[in-house]
């Protein structure tokens, strides 16, 4: 792609980096076909190619973002399917991240968006909101008519679970030693407890701890860890995202003092994609650049870790499993085969879902802020899942699990719950 940026603009190293990304586009036209929003809306502006041209124009002119510019960027799920498709390896993620930070600077957001940024990354506030959701459901017709915030609140009520799980692993320092006698060198890993997942589905991290303990690994939770920054980053609030990343890096750095930490294990692939990106996010911070790189290097999705464990699987039941490949795992972390291989090794009949590359539309806060598009993509995903006639659906990301479960009659579980069950742990509660 030809660019015409001014010498003044190119004096900024970040702008030069973005120009190099733009120039790698070869106009092949493959990306729209795998873009969920283009497939749904059929508008060139709502395709990766359309957004690339928009961002190119922003960089060349230096103009401020308008409402017309904001809509196609907001419609992007950041699923990164286009990056998997692109034959020239264009790093679309960097472009859309830049556009979101520009929107945050140039464009006045609604009070509802600001409230979401405060609510979702806080486990205590999020848990309180979930408790209030039970009462709020009775007043949904009134809630959805509230000016400014009604649509977002109604979307959150639709996604909230009907019953609250018991609190489990939080962000206080905790250690979970293996139950069997440790043989050989001590193995020690940190588990990232997360924010929304720890409140919505604490059983996921419990299953991960049991699985790792069964393999002789001590599991620790670092004191002071919090939100990974994904939600703020996804909404363009980059300074908030970087502050949250620094908090977690400090917690894990303290945990590594004097004792080798083999891995930081992450059970929410959306969080994993962001944590593995810490090195890039904090590359200009002299106090954190190296520490961020060190953390990103040992960050591992639970399926990456489980694939290397010496576990015996008991083949609990011959169930048909539809494996939903979370975008943050398949496209963001480039982990495609390990989860399916582990499920088959665990004794399950794994079925491929048609149009597996298309996002389920959870995408951080997307299913709250872009409800109509999200509902269309969710229903398309559920219809494709139904075509393989599964007994249950497995996924590696809490957002996907909540989104699909909100409208699917088939039970949805995290893959680690099935690995844990097959290797001697209890069956997932939804299968009882």
Question: How would you sum up this structure in a few lines?
Answer:
This protein is an alpha/beta fold and 432 residues long.
Structure commentary:
There is one protein chain. α24 links the parallel β8 and β9. Helix content is about 50%, strand content about 10%. The strands form 2 sheets. A 5-stranded mixed sheet has the order 1-3-2-4-5. The protein has a 4-stranded parallel sheet with strand order 7-6-8-9, sandwiched between helices. α4 crosses α7 and α13 crosses α25. It has about 425 residues and is α/β, with parallel strands linked by helices. The protein folds into 4 domains: about 100 residues, Fumarate Reductase Iron-sulfur Protein, Chain B, domain 2 (Orthogonal Bundle), CATH 1.10.1060; about 50 residues, no CATH class; about 130 residues; about 120 residues, Rossmann fold, CATH 3.40.50.1860. The model has no long low-confidence stretch (mean pLDDT about 85). The radius of gyration is 22 Å and the shape is globular.
Layout of helices and strands, plus pairs?
Layout lengths: L6 H4 L2 H11 L12 H6 L6 H14 L5 H9 L5 H5 L6 H15 L4 H9 L3 H14 L3 H4 L6 H10 L14 E3 L10 E6 L3 H5 L1 H13 L2 E5 L8 H5 L3 H19 L6 E4 L2 H7 L2 H4 L7 H10 E3 H6 L12 E4 L3 H4 L7 H8 L3 E3 L14 H4 L1 H16 L5 E4 L2 H8 L6 E3 H8 L10
Parallel strand pairs: 2-3, 2-4, 4-5, 6-7, 6-8, 8-9
Antiparallel strand pairs: 1-3
Helix pairs in contact: 4-7, 13-25
